[in-house]
Amino acid sequence: MTTPRKPEIRAFFDEPTNTVSYLVWDAANREGAVIDPVLDFDHRSGKVSVTSADAILKFADDTGVKIVWVLETHAHADHLSGAPYIKMKTGAKVGIGEHIRDVQRIFRPVFNATDVSGEGSEFDHLFKDGERFTIGTLSGEVIYTPGHTPACVSYKIEDAVFVGDTMFMPDYGTARADFPGGDARSLYRSIQRILALPPETRLFMCHDYKAPGRDEYAWETTVGEERARNVHVREGISEDEFVSMREARDAKLAAPLLLLPSIQVNIRAGKFPPGESNGVHYLKIPVKLAS
Questions:
Q1: Quick one: 252 exposed, middle or buried, by C-beta within 10 A (0-12, 13-18, 19+)?
Q2: Domain for residue 103, yes or no?
Q3: What is the pLDDT of residue 203?
Q4: The pLDDT of residue 70
Q5: Radius of gyration of the chain (CA)
Q6: Host domain of residue 128
Q7: CB–CB of 5/159 below 8 Å?
Q8: CB 95 within 8 A of CB 124
């Protein structure tokens, strides 16, 4: 069996959304991929900027990396995607898991988003579970990891796995599973797929919030560390125990600050809804009567 290589990896942390984006590249031929890029969005004013994406692009340019992929782990509910901007600047293809179709079909009626295909055609490539891809000479594999959303995937690139929101650092636990289409039992089983990898496998988180008692942000750990210390799924915690904990915990969580704008943009592969007759793009807020 071939020993996995260590790709070059640079993390970019966006503190307003606690999101970690990554540039992953092949040192041999300088091809790279961006994973989960952020578009800066001020929900109070509606203004957007590309400061976070530009930081990735500048580093890639300074390092001589050609970006050939933008890889989304899922349709994020806490930040807007910078994928279209990076695609425009580099020509990279935007990929996501094939079950984005399910997420589009869930949310299309919520926002009356009649322009959304429901077939995932807004993205350049829809990955299947187990599908392989390359970044230069690096070997990548897609692991379907639903639960947080029905469309979540993790990207295994040589010895590194980018887990999206499936799990967090060992002292923080796991992601919520109460969004439409989410499921705590599916989340547990997805996490077990990741934890079945060799213990030295490096894991890279999409978020960090500083667990109580920890002063610094952190986003890299290993399968072995998660097996031994993850406060929600360490060895000995059963599926039923996890589901009971996760559902009780989720029932007390508030909606993410950027939930409504993020979903509308991210199911469109990071694009805003079509402009109206005045040329302005609008995001919708469905109004519900309090029960």
A1: exposed
A2: yes
A3: 98
A4: 98
A5: 18
A6: 8-266
A7: yes
A8: yes
